[in-house]
Design a protein that fits this description.
With 339 residues, this protein is an alpha/beta fold. 37% of the residues lie in helices and 14% in strands. It has a single domain, classed as NAD(P)-binding Rossmann-like Domain (Rossmann fold), CATH 3.40.50. The structure holds NADPH dihydro-nicotinamide-adenine-dinucleotide phosphate (NDP). Keywords: Oxidoreductase.
Length: 339
């Protein structure tokens, strides 16, 4: 299948690209710079231009950002949209988080409808952030599933960067489903909603300093930054980046995935479990890791929400990577990057 992948240099997208190429698809991926295109190309030296090519999209928040990228010869049959800001640095939440997420999503859908009529499948990376209801706290009596929606408002979104990020994913995904309903385009949509994505970075793509947001936790542990105090866990559940990537690709391959939303969740984890796993598997980091009794490591005393990702298990037949495997591979990759 001829696929357009957005944001190919991202943590998740670089793995999606890997899976696409391994499964024989032909890919054009958008990047923001020639340097990132060159880096990605260097990871796949044996793949020709016919199977891996690049399109430059500098800012997905521009209304017509994807107008040219969606055109290709041979034409695209599927689009995987992962590009979206994921960080908590935003000063201007509207401009730095909400606009690129929402306009990025509606923009690419409009461009496909206008200029790429051969596209039949669109897959969008959404997030547990678009499912979680923060006002309910840890909500131990609740089980999160594909049916849950974050009820956040635009006013709440502007309060701080974390709320802004969660809202950006919520509004972007809602806008995608609204588009499908109102515009009745010639393609289906599949959305994938992972919580914190863990697992190996690709060391030549990411340095320790610029590691993406979800890997900061493991990096900080390895660097001794949490020795005295764990930083708060945003969520107590994770998805492995390889599992998530395979599901992106299966979503364009499997008919049953069309027009479905999938919660993608491997299971629970706590900061302390992460530290203990690293200590058990990589004793060389023992000095850097928080010991017993350091605050902020455990699950909340009253318990946390449960999760139900059984729809993804049924439709895709996925066997989730274990927390142990995910952690071991993540630490090995961070080690290779210099940790
Ligand atoms: P990264 O930060 O590694 O990747 C984000 C990608 O989006 C990069 O390619 C980045 O380009 C691109 N991007 C961001 N803003 C813009 C913009 N304004 N214009 C053009 N490109 C832009 O994050 P992840 O790989 O972790 O995230 C990928 C997707 O997965 C996102 O949609 C994110 O919301 C979602 N997700 C991630 C989770 C996680 O824990 N990692 C959890 C749940 C969902 P550049 O590299 O040039 O900055």
């Amino acid at each position: 299948v001829r696929v357009l992948l957005t944001g190919g240099s991202g943590f998740v997208a670089a793995h999606v690209l890997d899976v696409l190429l391994k499964r024989g698809h032909s890919v054009v991926t958008t990047v923001r710079s020639q340097a990132k295109a060159d880096l990605l190309k260097s990871l796949h030296p044996d793949v020709g231009k016919d199977r891996l090519d690049f399109a430059f999209v500098e800012d997905i928040a521009m209304e017509d950002a994807f107008d040219e990228a969606v055109k290709s010869d041979p034409p695209f049959e599927a689009v995987i949209h992962t590009a979206s800001p994921y960080h908590f640095r935003a000063k201007d939440i509207q401009k730095e988080l909400l606009d690129p997420a929402v306009i990025g999503t509606t923009g690419i859908l409009k461009s496909i409808k206008k200029s790429a009529p051969t596209v039949k499948r669109v897959v969008i990376t959404t997030s547990f952030a678009a499912m979680v209801d923060s006002s309910k706290g840890y909500w131990p009596e609740h089980t999160y599933s594909d049916d849950d929606w974050n009820p956040t408002t635009h006013e709440e979104a502007l309060k701080n960067a974390a709320a802004g990020y969660r809202a950006s994913k919520t509004f972007a995904e809602k806008a995608a489903w609204d588009f499908l309903e109102k515009e009745k385009p010639g393609f289906t949509i599949t959305t994938l909603a992972p919580p914190l994505v863990l697992g190996p970075i690709i060391p030549s793509l990411q340095s320790l300093e610029t590691v993406n947001t979800s890997n900061e936790r493991t990096r900080d542990l390895l660097q001794g930054k949490m020795k005295e105090k764990y930083s708060p866990t945003g969520s107590y559940i994770f998805a492995d980046v390889r599992d998530l990537s395979i599901l992106h690709v299966l979503s364009i391959e499997k008919e049953e995935a069309a027009n479905q939303r999938f919660f993608v969740c491997n299971g629970p984890f706590s900061n302390k479990e992460l530290a203990d796993m690293i200590r058990a598997k990589f004793p060389e980091y023992a000095d850097k890791l928080p010991g017993d009794g350091i605050p902020g490591g455990d699950y909340p005393a009253g318990g946390i929400y449960k999760t139900d990702a059984s729809k993804a298990e049924k439709v895709f037949g996925i066997k989730w990577t274990t927390f142990e495997q995910s952690t071991v591979d993540a630490v090995n990759a961070l080690k290779a990057a210099g940790a």
